[in-house]
Each structure stands twice: as structure tokens, then as C-alpha cells.
Amino acid sequence: VIPYDQTSHTQYQQIRAELAGQYSRTRNRASLLEINPINDAAFGGRRFALPPEMAGIHGLFESGNAAVVGNVGPLLEPLARSEWENETVVTPARLFSHNDQQSTWLTGSPEGAVTGWGGRIADAVHSSNTGEAFTNVSTFASDLFLAGNRAVPYHVDINGDPGIELLAELEADAASDASLLPVLSQLQQHFSGQTESAHLLERDLASRMNAAKTANDRYRQAPDLSATLTNRFPRTYLGQQLRAIAETVSQHGHLGVNRQVFFAGLGEFDTHARQAAVLPRLQQELNDAITAFNSVMMSLGLNDQVTLFTASDFGRTLSINGDGTDHGWGAHHFVTGGAVNGRQIYGDIPPAEFNHSQDAGNGRLIPTLAVEQMLEPLTRWFGLDDNDIATALPRLQRFSSRVDFI
Fold first, then answer.
1. Tell me: the pLDDT tens digits for 90-102?
2. What 8-state DSSP symbol labels residue 336?
């Protein structure tokens, strides 16, 4: 989200002058896509735009099918600049560390957490789905967001075959390692119900692998929509993840699920260098994949029932280091879908300048909305009651304000 009114844009370009000239598609005002939120009066004449690579998301915003949630990030309680400088309020552990802030965004805690927001949300509806295994589904390498106390992430490969890698490895190695044969034999007996091991770990392993095999068999029996949907998604990594998710969503009846949580991911946003070359490509990939996904949900008649939102470990600094930017804190995010109260900016977008009330230094934004505040309306839309929300988002009670983007 880029400053667009003349005063703000000029100031923004001056701060980033060295970097701005490196973009192949300029960030001059004429090239930007102005957004027209219905609550623009809240920003005192300041205007905003999206980069030229995000025309599809711009269209979703202008049509009311998307909103911006501004300046979101990990917080333990509300925080102002004076409190940050005087260290009078406790802040999240290990700020500006990728691993820890990714974990905090995904779980509420720094690295070492074992359950995520999505998993705890899925726990609340897990038993209402006859196909429990498909309550929370990941297409990305990291499943931490979807790990619950009951709910276990189900992984869908973008090539279509879920598979069980451990079984494949054991079968490949069994011929050359005779010590694995008794294990395989025991597992096969468990799968066929011929024996009951007294060893807890054996029983647990057999139960998990049997459940995974049963889920995979059920997933493979779903009608194949790849021919219908494949050509509607870009052949990018994120595009193919959202294609696999769209196919899975379309089969919710066959899979026995009414409410599901999905997780997809995209990396390379750590643009300390070559930002002008890397960031537009990533923005284009994000735009094309999200636009295609929303289009397919509309064509399937599911747009009102599916909401997509973005998340990231942190934003970037307003200051530059020559050809890139450094680790920030607060960032602006999108929510899309037919249920979204769209064409609005929720939260705040601080001015593109230094030393304002939410500047932690170098234009690093102190969040005005906690991650929990962004997730709370999504959990209510998903059907959780106050008790379920308190379990999924235990720190929400520390924040009095709410956003109503859905």
C-alpha cells in the first residue's frame, strides 16, 4: 500500500529516491493504482494506491470484494512510541527475528510453539466434520499454523498425490535393510486389524499411518477437477497451491467437511537487496494467484463461503539501505471474499515519514492492531463462540478495540 496523495507521495519518493529509480515499472504516481475506500475521510486527506503489479487485487477492492487491514503485527498489549522507547510495556520476544516472528504470527508465541491459530480454531469445529482429517489442510512446507490439540494438518501436494513419504521410504529401504522387515510386517498387521501391539509407540505409529492411508484413499476418490481448474490458475508456486486448495474446497461435500482452514505460503520477501527486481515479481505472483482463486470461488458459487487473508512475519522499514529495506514490524494485509465488508481500510496506515507516533525507528511501524485483533472477526465468521475464541486467541482480552471487516 503506497502513499498516493501528492504531498505524501512526494515525501515517500524523496525518502526512497535511490531505490525508487531502480524499478523497471516505476512507482511514480501515474503508474500507481489508486484505491478509493468508502472510509477515506478517516485519513485526513491522505490517499493510497497499490503498485501496478496488483491490478487484480485493486479490482477486488474497488468492487467491494477485498479490504485492507492496516498496520497489523505481534503485540502483547497496546503499545505507543513513548512506551516502546521507555520500555514500560512488555513487547513480544525476539522481535525482528524471522523464525520467531513467523512463529508468533502463526501461533502467538516465538519459536518452539506446538499449536497454531488455525489448529486451535480447527479444534473447535473438528468433531462437526465427518471427514475430520480434512478439517485443516496445508499446501506449504510449514504446517505449524494448522497444528491443533486435536486437529492434525492434512498435506495436499500441488501435483495432486498426497502420498505418505515415510511409507514410500520404508518400502524403498526394506529390501536392503532386513531390520525394517519386522516393523513393516507389524504395520501391515495393524493396517489389516490382525494384531494389537502392547507397545504404545507402535500402536500410535500404526494408528497415525493407518489414518493417513485412509484419508489419502478418500481424497483420491474425489472427482478430478484438475482439467476444469488447472488452466484458470497461473503456473507459479502460489498459483498452484491455490489451485490445489480450490480443488479441495470444491470437494468439501465428498470429503465430509463443512468448515475448513487452509494454509499456503510464499517466500523471498526478505528484500535487504535487489528489492526493485524481486518485490514486483512477488507482488505479481501474489496478485495473479489471489485473483484467480477469487474468480474460481465465484464461478463455483462459494465466494460468500470462503475468505482469504494474508499474513507475514513483519513489514519492511521505510528507510532504505541502498537497494533494499530492512526488517520492520507492523504491516498492511488484504482480506478477500464475498463475506468481506470490502472497499475499506481497517486499522491505520501511519504516514510515510519518520518520528511519528507509531515509528519505532527508521520508519519501522509499531503495530496499531495486534494479530489477535485481525483474527478475531475471522473466528466469529467461522462460527466460534466466545469460549472457543478465548481458547484459540488467549491474549485477545488484552485489546479493547475490534475490527469488523467481515
1. 999 889 999 899 9
2. E
